[in-house]
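Bumping with the actual sequence this time:
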Amino acid sequence: MITEAQLLADIALASEIILEHGEKYAPLLDRLEMELETRRRDDPVTRARRHLDRAQRGR
């Protein structure tokens, strides 16, 4: 399993590669950033509760 720390290290490496070798490597950085965001997001149960709370307040 890839840890958040590993993702951050990979993002730093991808950033160096982009600065040195060009934007053609930008999709790699995009993918790593998406993966990091996914890991930082609330768990599904917490998100589901938040959606139901909003729906019930809107009634």
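The tokens above came from a reply further down the thread. The chain has a mean pLDDT of 93.
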